[in-house]
Amino acid sequence: MFSFRTTPLLEQPDLVLKGGKLGLLCNQAAWHPEYGEYLFETLYKKGLLKRVFMPEHGLFGELQDQVKLDKTDAYKNLGMEGCEFVSLYGTGEESLSARADKLTDIDALIIELQDVGSRYYTFNTTILNLFKTLKNENINLPVYLIDRINPAGRQVEGTMLRKEYESFIGIEGILHRHGLTIGEVAHLLYNELNAKFPLHIISYSAQSISREMLPWSISPSPNIPGLFTCHFYSGQCLWEGTNVSEGRGTTRPFEIFGAPFMETLTKYNKTNNYSNWNTPEHPIHDPAVFVRWAKYIPVFHKYAGEVCFGFQLHPVPGVQYHALAHNLRIMNFVRTTCPEFSFREGKYEAGNDRTAIELLLGDPILLDYVSGKNSWDDAREHMKVEEQKWIRKAKRFMLYEEQLFRSK
Q1: Parent domain of 314
Q2: CA dihedral defined by 320, 322, 327, 329, rounded to 10 degrees?
Q3: What's this model's pTM, rounded to 2 decimal places?
C-alpha cells in the first residue's frame, strides 16, 4: 500500500503515530524550526521513540566519508534513556542494513534524511537496504518518509548504473544526477521491489522546514556545505576515483580540486597559445562556469598539509551546467597532460570489488572515454540517450508538478 500525504507527520491521524513504538532513521537534517528541536527529541518526549537508526556520517554528520561507526556509546549522553541507537554504517557489510529483529519489535518506521541529488550519496542505498529487509523477511511495517526538496533540482545528468557496477554508492538503474526527491526515489525503489509493506510519503510542502529553511541550510554530511556543492557534486565526485584531491580538507569540497603534481599545468596555456583557462577554445572551458586556477592546502584527506595546484569552479548565474559532462572532459584533460595522474586502485566500497572510478561512473562507455579509448562525441551522445530514457522511466514515480529536464 502506497500513499502520498500533504499534512505534516505529527498531524497525521494514524493511531500508530500517536501511541505506537516507533523507529526513526535520521541524522542532523531532521531538525524542525517550529519546535526548535530534532525529530528524535520530539518523539522521545512523547514517549514513542524506541530506536534511532543512523546512516553514514553518524547522527550529527560528525564523521567523515567512509568512517565506520560500530559503537554508539557517544549518544548515551543525550538524555534519552531506553532509546537504542543503531548504526547502519559499520565495519561489516551486514551492518549496512538493519537486522530483522530490530524492525519486528517496533510498530512503525519514520525516515527523515536530506539527499543531494546524485546516486553516489549513500542515503538512498540505506533506504533500499531497509526496504529489502522488510520485503525479504515479510515484515509488514508501516514506513513514513518525510520528503525533502532536492537541492540539485530537477536537472538530470549521466547514465543509468549497470548491474555489474552496483554497490553501496550506486543503485542499479539510477542516473548519476537523478533529479528526484528522496521520497520519489523511495517510491521508485518500492515499486521495483514489488514491496507490499505500507509506504507513506509526506510531501515536502507539508513540513515547515521546507518553507522556512533552505534545503542545504543544515549540511546533510560534512563535505556538502552548501548549494553549490550539490550543483557540482555529480561531476566532481569522480575525483574520488583518482589521485586528484576533490577538495576534502578545505572549506569548498567538490568545488575545488587539484594535486601537487598538477603544478606542471602552470605552463600549459602559454605553451599552447591560450590566453587563459576560460578561452572558448580551451579543452576545459565550459560556458556555464568560470574556471579559476588556485593553490590550496588540505588539512586532511588527500595531500593533507601539501600545496595543491588546481582549480575552483564558479557557476555563471542563470546558465544550465552539466557538471558530469564537464568533469569528464576535465578528467580526460588532466589524464593526458599530467603524467603522474592515476586512477585509484583496489576495492573501494561495500558490495562490489571493482575500483572506485568503475563504481562511480558505472558505465563502460564513460569509462572508456576517461581512459582514452573512445571519443567525447560517443560519450556525449550516450549520455543524451540515457538521460532521455531516465526521464521517461522516472516520470511514473514523480510526486510533484515540476518536471525533469536535460541540460542541452
Answers
A1: 228-362
A2: -100
A3: 0.97
